Structure formats: structure tokens, C-alpha cells
Amino acid sequence: xTQSAPPLSAAPLVDRxxxxxxxxxxxxxxxxxxxxxxxxxERMEFxxxxxxLTLEEMHRLALSFIDRGVTKIRLTGxxxxxxxxxxxxVRALGRKLGDGLEELTLTTNATRLAExxxxxxxxxxxxxxxxxxxxxxxxxxxxSRRAVLPQVLDGIAAAREAGLKxxxxxxxxxxxxxxxxxxxxxxxxxxxxxxxxIEVMPLGEVEGDRFDHYLPLDAVxxxxxxxxxxxxxxxxxxxxxxxxxVAETGGRIGFITPLTGNxxxxxxxxxxxxxxxxxxxxGGEGQVDLRAALRSADPDAALAQAFERAMxxxxxxxxxxxxxxxxxxxxxxxxxxxGG
Length: 340
Ligand code: SAM
Ligand code: SF4
Description:
Blueprint: E1 23-29, H1 55-67, E2 72-77, H2 86-94, E3 103-108, H3 113-122, E4 127-131, H4 137-144, H5 149-161, E5 165-172, H6 181-190, E6 194-199, H7 217-225, E7 230-233, E8 242-246, E9 252-256, E10 269-272, E11 277-279, E12 287-289, H8 290-294, H9 299-313, H10 335-338
Parallel strand pairs: 1-2, 1-10, 2-3, 3-4, 4-5, 5-6, 6-9
Antiparallel strand pairs: 7-8, 8-9, 10-11, 11-12
Helix pairs in contact: 1-2, 3-5
The structure holds S-adenosylmethionine and iron/sulfur cluster.
Iron/sulfur cluster (SF4) binds at residues 32, 34-36, 39-40, 77-79, 109, 131, 336.
């Protein structure tokens, strides 16, 4: 993979609301080996491979973002570790650590992490976010439609052994994993992992109605406060999570509340899909075609123009609601397409 993505301009990316963009979430594939029921339907239609950027194109794009002041890149998907040769991209980006890039990280469902944990660590990845909604094998199969909890737990153990810092992400689901949340927290904290709870978002059609399992996190927090002493802490990881410290377990819980608490004022991020579409907001339709820019006659000039347009269009905030049964998703796009 080549190292050259000549900067046309090194000016930082700053939007209309004076927010500096320092964080890129890059979806390396929309494909996945699980079918989490809140994320996608069983018969999810994936993109034709020809539309997806090559790893070289992704690398080049990532370098252009670094040239413009992005210091943190998270590789996501779909499931990033199902993309063949994904480690090539990780290694190439790992070489930028300390040279513009401050952090390279990954969000994964961990089904293949046992195979890749050591390589990720060797390439310079220090932390991974792992999605785990339950440790109950039956519920895991029901939620993800695949019976692979043992592989996931092996992947998590491998990450820990490889020296990766792990954060667990858990979507809070009424009547599904709701009762298990305290024991998931205890387990995570016992392993030395933070755990972040996420409200389910109305993104893309799925088979069921998300309303049935939507669980506002203020209710979860009240329940946890009945059990433990939670203290708000000022920890910010550059993301939307608000953290509390749990006195009894010694660990931290994050709350991501896209529905009950809007967190857009400090937004520092943009997302690029596997086809090179730049989304300025997870909750908005606005997109800029970086693939066309990359494949144009003068990619540097076209990318600079595309970045400028994107900064002019990044919206001030998103607005999600899940307030009645049967409502259509706020956006047709699935989280797995934009890169969760
Ligand atoms: N496959 C990887 C994984 O699951 O970690 C990375 C991509 S996945 C789209 C990233 C995160 O988005 C996961 O933590 C998942 O639980 C979350 N997610 C997916 N669909 C969601 C939705 N509709 N609302 C809230 N979170 C969602
Ligand atoms: Fe796959 Fe992640 Fe979506 Fe689950 S949440 S279906 S693991 S992309």
C-alpha cells in the first residue's frame, strides 16, 4: 500500500458551527456475519462488491483526513474483521501513529477477534470497542440470529490477553437484555472493562418494531442507582458517552443517549461509508461523494472541494424519536451502512 496522499491544503476541517473535525469513523465493509435484530433484517441486502472502495482507496482517503487534522480513526462496519485483508489497512494506518494520527481503533462484534487480536495490537491498536448485548447463549442467538457466543467470548478474552484495552458496548433493550444489564456491568467491570449503554436508534428497516424494545437510559440509570452508588465523572473520550463511576465495582458505565439527551454541540466526527460516501451526521441525509472525488482526474483538488462542501453542510444536530408503535425509521439507512 503506498504512503502518498499529497496534501492540497493542511487547513483543519472546521464546520459552520466552529466544531473542529478530528475524528473519522471509516466503515470498511457493510457486510456482517451477525444479524442483530435491531440493526438489520435477516435478509439484509449488501452492496455489490464493485461499489465498495478498495483498501488502497480507503488508505488514501484516511491519509487525506489525517492531513486535514483528523487525529483519531475508528474502523467499523458492518463487521470490519470480515473484510479480507483488512489487516493490511490496519498496518498501513498504524504506520501513521505518531505522525499525525494519535489513535487507531476498531469497533467489532468480536466473532473473529481471537484470530486478529495479537496482530491488531502489533499494528499499534491499543483499544477496541466490542459490542455485546448479552452473555446468555439463548438470548445471544435470538438477538444476533447466530449461535456464536462462545467465539465472541473467546475473542474478548484474546483481546484482553493481547493487551488491548476493551470497552463493551451494549444496546439496552426493553424486555430482552434489560434485566441482565446489572450482571453485564458486574462482569465487564470484573474484567477491567468499561461498559457503555446505548439507546436503540431508528435507523433502517428491520423485521420487528424497535418501539417494542426501546428502553430510555434515564430509566436504566435510576434502576442502577437503586443498586449502586453512581458518581458523574467528567471523563470525555471524544464521543457522546457521559460516564459515571460505580463505587461498588470500581468500574465505569457510559450512557449514549441519542434520543433522550442530544449530544451534538461538541460533535467532532464524520463518517465515511464503504463506498466512500462522507456523512456529516449519523442522523442526517447529507452526504458527499468522496469516491467520485478519489476517482476523478485531479483527486487532490476534488477531495479538497468535497471536504469544503461537507464542512458547509454538517448539520447543527440530529433529532431522533421513537414515540409510537409502527413508525417508519427516521432514516432508511442502516447503522451498518454508515458505520456505527
Ligand atoms: N459490527 C460491529 C459491531 O457490532 O460492533 C461494528 C458495527 S455496529 C453497526 C456498531 C454499533 O452499532 C454496535 O455497538 C451496535 O450495537 C450498534 N447499533 C447497530 N444498530 C443500532 C441501532 N439501530 N441503534 C443503536 N445502536 C445500533
Ligand atoms: Fe453486525 Fe454490528 Fe449490526 Fe450486529 S450491530 S448486525 S454485529 S453490524
